[in-house]
Automatic annotation (TrEMBL):
Keyword Lipoprotein belongs to the record: no
Keyword Lyase carried by entry: yes
Family the UniProt entry places it in: Belongs to the pterin-4-alpha-carbinolamine dehydratase family.
GO BP: any one term: tetrahydrobiopterin biosynthetic process
Alphabetical list of InterPro entries matching this protein: PCD_sf, Pterin_deHydtase
UniProt keyword list: Lyase
GO molecular function: 4-alpha-hydroxytetrahydrobiopterin dehydratase activity
Organism: Modestobacter marinus
Catalytic reaction list: (4aS,6R)-4a-hydroxy-L-erythro-5,6,7,8-tetrahydrobiopterin = (6R)-L-erythro-6,7-dihydrobiopterin + H2O
CDD domains linked to this entry: PCD_DCoH
Listed EC numbers: 4.2.1.96
Pfam families, A to Z: Pterin_4a
Protein name from the UniProt record: Putative pterin-4-alpha-carbinolamine dehydratase
Length: 97
């Protein structure tokens, strides 16, 4: 499978305009989910893990009581790629904000 191409700063800025719940840039993007309970936050981690497995692209996740920070970057490309955007879009579908 070919390695995805890293986005330019302009490409990253354009992509983030379509992902208003996310922040970051060419080095990667992140979003923090706020859930009503600890159990809901744990279930969010599990739901995101299921999507990550389907895409074979795995985010860093940090669970803190009722919040989950999700950070994505394509390490093999050294920055933001289309894989990261696809995972972010799927997270937004699960958790529209």
């Amino acid at each position: 499978m070919p390695r995805p191409s890293r986005f330019s700063p302009d490409d990253a800025a354009a992509a983030l305009r379509d992902l208003p719940l996310w922040s970051g840039g060419v080095e990667g993007i992140e979003r923090t989910l706020q859930l009503p309970t600890f159990r809901a936050a744990v279930e969010a981690v599990s739901a995101i893990a299921d999507v990550a497995e389907l895409l074979d692209h795995h985010p860093d996740m940090d669970l803190r009581w009722t919040s989950v920070r999700v950070a994505v970057v394509t390490h093999s490309a050294g920055g933001l790629t289309e894989l990261d955007l696809e995972l972010a879009r799927r997270v937004d579908t699960l958790f529209p904000g």
